[in-house]
Design a protein that fits this description.
Blueprint: H1 8-15, H2 18-27, E1 42-49, E2 55-61, E3 66-71, H3 76-85, H4 87-90, H5 98-107, H6 115-136, H7 140-143, E4 151-155, E5 166-169, H8 185-202, E6 207-211, H9 218-228, E7 236-237, H10 245-252, E8 259-261, H11 267-276, E9 282-283, H12 292-304, H13 318-330, E10 337-338, E11 358-360, H14 373-378, E12 389-390, E13 397-398
Parallel strand pairs: 4-10, 5-6, 6-7, 7-8, 8-9
Antiparallel strand pairs: 1-2, 2-3, 4-11, 12-13
Helix pairs in contact: 3-6, 5-6, 6-12, 8-9, 11-12, 12-13
């Protein structure tokens, strides 16, 4: 067969003699190694639990293209084991049928949804999109309709160097966080004074969100959201647990400050009730937990119908950030990316730097990053231990 008649994979296989292969591997981007009509099959699924409880999944193919994703860090071992079970279905399949596989993994289980199963779908979904983008030589956002913006606003640490001008804090008093059913005026006053000091320090040019983290009881939440209003927080996040959406909706009616929630809500079905009841006006799905890139794109579309922006939740690793930024790049109602200014030591090369408070779009194929596998493997180990929290006054269990 002449070279002119060879498809792209045949050309690579013919040309990559041992000496040439060494040179190629030194510069490979793991991208566009096959033609768009060439066969591509999943050959292996691996999962890794890190000592900080981050959970990674790696999917390999017969073309040498690999994809990476992350899963829920709680119940880390269960997520890691569950991902491997999906191999019974996925190995031998074309990874580029991403939405089809999402449906098969979700609907193929008799007991659907839930945090662990959806986390497994989330990590695998990210990895499949990563492979698909690399196979076609484009970032994922170009496969999802193309860019709707040139850069993504981020929040994390206020810095003149990066231009980041948005942060998030908790409702703390002088010595502790809020967790009593009804906090007294002394504690509420301490929270307000601490927030006022931040507002005075940074001025009106910095947006400051307040993360209640679902650890504040509704009577205390009602007191705090009114007391803090004069200083115009950016948003109130997880004012209460999202288990009773009606309670959150009642609190939303008591303030003009936007309520945000979503880090413990999964799939489009979970966000439907939040949006319908106007329990929050900013949605914060976690790409490692809510259903992956596929679901975040759908949730963003649902939220757009309610004029609600999306601010993806992200306390995790580099795949989480990269996948979130791929979604942010292609939806019209993106607001801001949590911890988007964070750099990650597990990457083979750094992310494009944050400037003027914005991260440039990740333009490398797939989700836009390359994992340094040696660095990742050095962090594999036992996850953090289970950590309930107790009231020091009476020993009862409290939220955290």
């Amino acid at each position: 067969m002449s070279q002119a008649r060879m498809n792209r994979r045949s050309w690579f296989q013919t040309m990559l003699a041992p000496a040439a292969l060494t040179m190629f591997n030194a510069h490979r981007t793991d991208a566009a190694q096959i033609g768009p009509n060439d066969s591509l099959k999943v050959t292996k699924i691996e999962s890794f639990v890190l000592k900080n409880s981050w959970v990674f999944v790696k999917i390999s193919t017969d073309a040498g293209i690999t994809g990476w994703g992350e899963m829920l860090k709680d119940d880390a071992k269960a997520c890691a084991a569950g991902a491997l079970e999906v191999g019974d279905y996925l190995i031998g399949e074309d990874p580029r049928r991403v939405v089809h596989h999402w449906q098969a993994i979700h609907r193929g289980a008799f007991y659907r949804g839930g945090p662990i199963k959806t986390a497994i779908s989330s990590g695998i979904d990210q990895a499949l999109w990563d492979i698909t983008g690399k196979a076609y030589g484009v970032p994922v956002y170009k496969l999802l309709g193309g860019p709707t913006r040139d850069r993504c606003r981020v929040y994390g640490t206020v810095s003149e160097e990066t231009g980041v001008n948005a942060i998030k804090v908790g409702p703390r008093g002088e010595e502790r966080a809020a967790f009593k059913y009804v906090e007294g005026p002394k504690f509420v006053g301490e929270v307000v004074e601490r927030f006022k000091a931040l507002r005075d320090k940074y001025g009106p040019g910095v947006d400051i969100g307040i993360d209640f983290h679902g650890a504040v009881q509704p009577p205390t939440a009602a007191l705090l959201i009114k007391a803090l209003e004069p200083y115009q927080p950016f948003f109130y996040e997880e004012v209460v647990q999202a288990l009773n959406v009606d309670v959150m909706a009642e609190l939303a009616k008591k303030t003009h400050i936007p309520l945000a929630t979503g880090e413990r809500i999964f799939t489009k079905w979970g966000f439907r009730e939040i949006l319908e009841k106007r329990a929050a006006t900013i949605v914060q799905p976690d790409v490692n937990y809510a259903g992956g890139i596929t679901e975040l794109k759908i949730i963003a579309g649902m939220a757009e119908a309610y004029y609600a922006p999306m601010a993806p939740h992200n306390p995790n690793g580099p795949c989480s950030l990269a996948a979130s930024l791929q979604v942010a790049a292609c939806i019209p109602n993106f607001l801001i990316q949590e911890r988007g200014d964070r750099e990650h030591e597990l990457l083979a090369k750094p992310l494009p730097p944050v400037r003027n408070g914005h991260r440039p779009l990740l333009t490398d194929p797939g989700i836009g990053i390359t994992i340094d596998e040696d660095k990742l493997m050095a962090e594999v180990g036992e996850p953090r231990e289970y950590r309930p929290k107790f009231d020091p006054d009476d020993g009862s269990v409290v939220d955290w």
